[in-house]
Amino acid sequence: MAGFSGCAGAQVQNKESLLSEAGFHTRTLSTPAQLAMYNQMTPYKLERNTLKGKALYTYADKQKGVVDIGGENAYQRYKQLAAQQSTAQNELEAAYNDQLSEADRVFSTHYN
Prior knowledge:
Helix content is 62%, strand content 21%.
């Protein structure tokens, strides 16, 4: 279970880093109205809302007690960064699997 929670923590930290890099702004809640809205939010989930007819994306970090907020441009940038990161991760995993396969082949050739 500790391994899983460590992985989940890394995923949250990664997502928050991507949000920040994409242009989301971290806000600390200060008014009763903000706290009421915050308490209704799903923790660690990027949610789409509408404010004055415009898209507003929010991400509540319940452990830190803050909200990351961004508009449509920040959201589109976040999606782009997440896709790039996913592609890079997939390429890294493929290269690692290729190395393992080659090591298995070499080992089998020399020790069988």
